[in-house]
Amino acid sequence: MYILGLSCFYHDSGACLLQDGVPVAAASEERFTRRKQDSEFPVNAVQYVLSEAGIDISQVEAVAFYDKPMRKFERLLISQIHHFPMGLHQFLHGTANWLTTKLRLPSVLKNKIGYTGPIFYADHHLSHAASAFYSSGWDEAAILTVDGVGEWSTATWGHGHGMDLDLKGEIRFPHSLGLLYSAFTWYLGFKVNSAEYKVMGLAPYGEPTQVDKFRQLIHVASDGSFRLDMRYFDFDYRLRMFGSALEELMGQPRRELETGPLTQFHKDVAKSLQVVVDDIMVKLATSVVEKTGCRKLCLAGGVALNCVANGNILRQAPIDDLYIQPAAGDAGGAMGAAAWVWHALLRQPRQPRLASVYLGPGYDEAQVRRTLEHYGAVYERCDDATLCAKVAERIDTKRVVGWYHGRMEWGPRALGHRTILADPRDPEMRDVLNWKIKKREGFRPFAPCVLEEHISEVFEIDRPSPYMLLVAQVREGQHLPAVTHVDGSARIQSIKREDEPLYYDMIKAFYDRTGCPVVVNTSMNVRGEPIVNTPEDAYLCFMRTDMDDLAMGPFLLAKEDQPELVQPDAKSLFGLD
């Protein structure tokens, strides 16, 4: 039985296909359209997941949608009525989109993909909760979901046991930790729903000098429940996050989008925000564990991508273990909604923990060769052992290597299949990667990927971190300047051989050569673009940046050997505009 899960029409749309309850394919629409955070109906992602399973839409027996559009529209209407006439412009701006897409999903499904079968609508936070609990492999767990807003909920807590998932409590809009974070993403001059991770990366450069001001903006109870002082925010009825009252409280106007100078004040604001978020998330996690009696915690929602807060939950809350689904944001709701239908509604048995994060498109050797020959690329073909040895050698000699293999990762992190690799011991490598490769702000940190058996030797953490969703301190005496943030922390990915043999073997070859079980791992993309998908995406990224080498499939390319890049035709080699 095939169930298709969908997430779309807000941000980060995606599709996930379950076969008898097991995910066989999942991907975000942005990877196909090359529009970051694409929110449109994921027609390309749907076409991909169907083709990966070798079926057509007629063989899908149910579609599961990740939220309830009518309840969201109810919230929009009530908010506008409450603030009438101040919210009229926002209401008129959004109504057309609602009436043509979100409230007419059956007709959209019919017109876009030819589907006319049954549709199940899961509550937004139920989809988040299901995405974590059902993929955790745990028979019982406490559950916490925190994001911007679903229908009405902005945070929920509950309990999962077997096939049943019960959300017992919530915090409701407009009181939202995710929207507070987004408001200050905007205040600090970054894009909302796109650049919140920049604020997290900026925070370690600051001091928590503005915490008292944040305590005026958000009132937090001992159990972590919170309320925003809505005198300072406008997002509930206007097309903006806040007005002059918040700027007056903070003492400075909003930084110009992506252009204003980043001062110590901005760094202190980011740090103060992170301190407040950490405090709330630890209190919420503690409260949920105490209320449910379960010391295993599943965490989901956009705020679950804040790996600094996750690390603090692990260290400070009374939990035994923490599980976060790799696509914890809205795209992951597609998987959660489908799993909810399979387990909670159809009463089908649970599966083990999510077996692989590599659920996106993959391209075989012939397709990769076709791309290289189209561009006249110069390459050598290597067997696996030779490829790993040569890549390890090039990293060791301070070269930056693109690593493109297998199926694309599910979620926002590159976890070894669409990755750029470098030497973490090189003190200059961070600036090289930020300025010459990623074309991004110099304060942004890079993540290490470590052989799992060495994780506790290098970092102050006692468990694996396979999805790059936990932050821990680098142990004293470890010289890893390219991945050690200014506060001594690192956002860790660990890898074991049974999860991804070739990626593991390459890092092991680097370890055997250097004694260092860590490499720099950053996503293969440049600022403002999604992570690469096709071999063509990867080759163009390689050629348009200062990457030195590219390992793509069994082929190894050196930049100095390549001919001058000829711009591609408007039509991609793989059939997408």
Question: How is this structure best described in words?
Answer:
With 577 residues, the protein is an alpha/beta fold. It folds into three domains: 2-66 and 68-121 and 330-345, 2-Layer Sandwich (Nucleotidyltransferase, domain 5), CATH 3.30.420; 172-324, Nucleotidyltransferase, domain 5 (2-Layer Sandwich), CATH 3.30.420; 365-561, DHBP synthase. The chain contains 19 helices and 21 strands. The chain has a nine-stranded mixed β-sheet with strand order 13-21-20-14-15-19-16-18-17, with helices on both faces. Strand 9 (218-220) and strand 10 form a beta hairpin. It starts with a strand and ends in a 19-residue tail after the last strand. The relative contact order is 0.12.
Keywords:
alpha/beta; 3 domains; DHBP synthase; five-stranded mixed β-sheet; globular; Nucleotidyltransferase, domain 5
Blueprint of the fold:
Layout lengths: L1 E6 L6 E6 L2 E7 L1 H4 L9 H11 L6 E6 L3 H15 L4 H15 L2 H9 L5 E3 L2 H13 L3 E7 L6 E9 L2 E9 L4 H11 L8 H7 L8 H7 E3 L5 E3 L15 H7 L13 H29 L3 E5 L6 H10 L4 E4 L7 H14 L19 H10 L5 E2 L2 H13 L4 E4 L13 E5 L6 H9 L9 E5 L3 H4 L11 E4 L15 E7 L5 H14 L3 E6 L11 H10 L4 E4 L2 E4 L19
Parallel strand pairs: 1-4, 4-5, 6-11, 11-12, 14-20, 16-18
Antiparallel strand pairs: 1-2, 2-3, 6-7, 7-8, 9-10, 13-21, 14-15, 15-19, 16-19, 17-18, 20-21
Helix pairs in contact: 3-4, 6-13, 11-12, 15-18
